[in-house]
Amino acid sequence: MSDALNEVPSGDGYGKLLREGLWDNNVVFSQLLAMCPTMAVTTSGTNGLGMGLATTAVLVVSNILVSMIRHTVSSQVRIPVFVVLIATLVTVVDMAMNAWLHDLYKVLGLFIALIVVNCAILGRAEAFAVKNGVVASAVDGLAMGLGFTGALTVIGLIREFLGAGTLFAQASNLLGPSFAFLEIKLPGYGGALLMILPPGGFAILGFLLAGKRVMERRLEEKAAARAELATA
User: Fold this and answer.
1) Which residues lie closer than 8 Å to 212 by C-beta, 6 or more apart?
2) pTM of the model
3) Residue 2 banded pLDDT, cuts 50, 70, 90
4) CA 8 – CA 16 distance, rounded (Å)
5) pLDDT grade, residue 154 (50/70/90)?
6) Is 165 within 8 Å of 157 (Cβ atoms)?
7) 62 to 15, 147, 162, 187, 206: CA distances (angstroms)
C-alpha cells in the first residue's frame, strides 16, 4: 500500500514535478489554459492570489481522489465521475469562501463556480492522477496549482501597479487583517486605466509569454555551449 501511495512516474522525481508545474508546463505561461479567469480576475494581485489558491485547493484534492479511485472506475465512465468529483470540490470551496472570505467571494463571484470547467483540473486528472500514485498526484496538483497562482498573481500585480499605482490593494479586507502588510500605494501616480481593462491584460500576458520564451531560449543556448565545452 505504501509503495502505491508513493509511486512516482519512471524517471521523474518530486523536484521535476514541481519544476513542471511552476515553470516548464505552467498552466498559463506554457499551456495557455484557463484564459477566462486569467483575464477576468487579474485586475489586482489580491484577486489573482485568491483565485489561484482556490484553484490550487481543488487541484490537489481532485488529483488525490482521482488517484485513489483510478483502479475502481472503468474507463467508459471515468470522465463523468471526474467531473462530478471536481464539481463537488468546487462547491465546497465556494461555500467555504462565502463563509470565511466573503469580501473576496463577492469580488470573484461567478468565477469561483467556473473552476469546474477549468481545463487544467480535468486535464491533470486525465494526464497524471489517473496513472500515478496518491503522493505523486498530490505533488503534481500542488505544483500546477502554485504555478497557476503565481501566474495570476504576477499578471494581477503588474496590471494593478500600472493601472492604479497600488500593489495588493484591499488585501486586509479580502484576505484578513494579517495581510495588511502587503498593501502598497505609489504616491503621486494615478494609473493608466487601459491596464485594468481586458486589452491591458492581454498585452501584459503577451509580454510575459515573450519574456519566458526569450529566457528559455537563452538558457538552452547556454546549456548547449556548456555541453560543447565539455565534449571539446
Assistant:
1) 29, 30
2) 0.91
3) very low
4) 11
5) very high
6) no
7) 21, 17, 36, 44, 30
pLDDT in tens, 102-127: 888 988 888 898 899 888 999 999 99
Assigned C-alpha cell, 204? 501584459
Interacting residues of 31 by C-beta distance below 8 A, sequence separation 6+: 25, 120, 123
CA 5 to each of CA 51, 64, 135: distance values in angstroms, whole numbers, following the listed order:
29, 10, 6
Q: How many helices (H) and strands (E) does the chain have?
A: 11, 2
What DSSP string runs through 109-151? THHHHGGGG-HHHHHHHHHTGGGS-HHHHHHHHHHHHHHHHHH
Residue type, 173: N
Q: Distance between CA 128 and CA 121 in Å, rounded?
A: 11
Extents of the domains making up the chain: 2-231
What is the C-alpha to C-alpha distance for residues 120 and 173, in angstroms, rounded to an integer? 29
Q: Which residue has the cell 486589452?
A: 199
Grid cell 471536481 in the structure block, residue? 86
Tell me the C-alpha distance between 154 and 208, whole Å.
9
Give the Cα separation of 140 and 3 in Å (integer): 17
